[in-house]
């Protein structure tokens, strides 16, 4: 990978439309000055590799797809979906070495688009304690097909989540290109240990004038998860780290639970051990 591509190592980049690569086919593209091949294996998954055969540097995109392998057009070296060479026609009895391997990239196919990531995985976001109290999750970056208000099409969106008090949280989202931000604050007012009323305040930093209808439509989107959230059990929030199956992407949620436990907060939660 070129040095210039290293700064993109954690980014998910569109390569092509799904329809650009038919079943059993292969096609070459250029992404960040790199030759990229997208080919479809036997389960119709889009595999994204460097368009380069390590034997003599031929473009794999000019080859053929056979028996769940892509075959180099020059000397017929065959590679499986993991990028490992399985067969060398000029010496069929030879078992190819582990070095005979094509460079593969992480890939996904969503929204009718084939995506790739030069890195093996997207860097984790950061959770820090705010100097005047609370928690903040930074470096949260995701692709959104609808982008943000006032912008046509999708965009990479930067998020910052903040929890200043146990029952007050805020979210700021901004397109990476620096277009207008959206700020949302959620303040909860408990009715009982398991019932809460919530106030949502939003501020749009853009030049558009937003009608009441637009704001109501936005609220409807937020409310879509309400039945699912209300179905969670137990009704009170478990603070015991072993009570739920946390993943790396849950770092902010785990930090929030530890933060509540550390301050001895005792409303609407289940104390840990």
Automatic annotation (TrEMBL):
The keyword Membrane applies. The keyword Ribonucleoprotein does not apply. Keywords: 2Fe-2S, Iron, Iron-sulfur, Membrane, Metal-binding, Oxidoreductase, Transmembrane, Transmembrane helix. GO terms for molecular function: 2 iron, 2 sulfur cluster binding; metal ion binding; oxidoreductase activity. It is found in: Membrane. InterPro entries: Cholesterol_7-desaturase, Rieske_2Fe-2S, Rieske_2Fe-2S_sf, VanA_C_cat. SUPFAM superfamilies: Bet v1-like, ISP domain. It comes from the Bacteria. Gene3D superfamilies: Naphthalene 1,2-dioxygenase Alpha Subunit, Chain A, domain 1, Rieske [2Fe-2S] iron-sulphur domain. CDD domains: Rieske_RO_Alpha_N. GO terms for cellular component: cytoplasm; membrane. Residues 12-116 form the Rieske domain. This is Rieske (2Fe-2S) domain-containing protein. It comes from Candidatus Paraburkholderia kirkii UZHbot1.
